[in-house]
Amino acid sequence: MKRDLGSTFNVRVVAEDEYEAVMNVQILDGAREAKKEFIWCVVVDDEIEKQVAIELGQIEAVRVKISTASEAEIAATLEHLKSEESGFSRIKPQKVAKAIVEYRENNTLSDLSFVTKLKCGIGKAKLPVLSEVFEV
Known about the structure:
The protein is α/β, with parallel strands linked by helices and 136 residues long.
């Protein structure tokens, strides 16, 4: 049996066995109008819903505040950046995050250029991409 996974909409759990359509609601409306008995849906939580909205361009991605983010948050953001941007494939996110946290303990951050001085594989050419996910 062939399944059309392109015809899905997203729902959020409201209560046990109760859901609310939150994205691609027009698919649900169309399925109801066509009197479809079955339609695929994807259950999402707030985090997934936000990520989908970012990827669809419905909202802008929230940037991580590098001056206050935890080492784990910085590393996770760099790991994601590494998987998305070929220019970041050789960086070691945990090492870079640790260097950032150590640097900011003794220095005031005014912009992201300090990262180029940490000798962690991020040079001036990578700053524009870095500024898309981090802010000071």
